[in-house]
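REQUEST ID: PR-0412
SUBMITTED BY: lab tech R.K.
PRIORITY: routine
TASK: structure prediction, single protein chain
INPUT:
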Amino acid sequence: MNNIIHNAKLYLSFLSASLKEMLIYRLDCIAGMISQLVTQLVEVIFIWITFQNTDNLAGWRFEQSLLLYGVMLISIGIVDFCFDELYEIGPKYIRNGDFDKILLRPVHPLISIIGASNEFTCLGYLALGLFITISMLIKLAIPITFFLIIKIIFFSIIGAMIIGAINTIFSIASFWTYKSNEVIWTFFRMYTFTEYPIDIYNKFIKFLITYILPFAFVAYYPTMNYLGIDKYMTYLSPLIAIIFWIIAIKIWNWALKRYRSTGN
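STATUS: complete
OUTPUT:
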């Protein structure tokens, strides 16, 4: 337990330093935010166009679906800031020989890597996600209480932890290929299935994104809780996050033992 607390403190220390570094380059930060805002606004327009041809998707109205999208964006913003560096393990750290330097540090290499994340685009995701979520809560006449705010923050962080664990599992491809970023991206992008109510998919897709790669617990079940449709499934999210992180760390340590230096 002491080891976990120590590693958590180290990770937060690295992350704090990355945040300060990110904010130094203000122009880049603003440009990153704007580019992501534009990209995600296109997604919002696509959802709006979809609802011009139907009254609902699997019983979900436009405002409810947009709330789901906003909740998802908040978690994705946290993921981008906290775990974006996982994409660089193969093409940056291992290929250039920097991973060998990290191995010399008296800290687990995974903590050093994810603690160095400083993706500017996360601010765009967070800003738009928060705006959409708050706007839709007001539109749906859902009282914005202190307890609801705490729930949204808590489950958004838990959702980000679930995605982070999934990305960490697939980041082990870095130890065998420099194209590991493409491997991670392939599985990470499955989260887009849960930008919409999962009942619109067939049984296989629903099973995949609920029990194998549990992206449904990132935003779908939390949103159902906020809407009062399903009050209980979202409370499984913390347990799922813990289980997947245990699996991720064990798999990552197994792969680390098979690492061979590039010789740079």
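NOTES: The first helix runs from residue 2 to 24.
REVIEWED BY: pending
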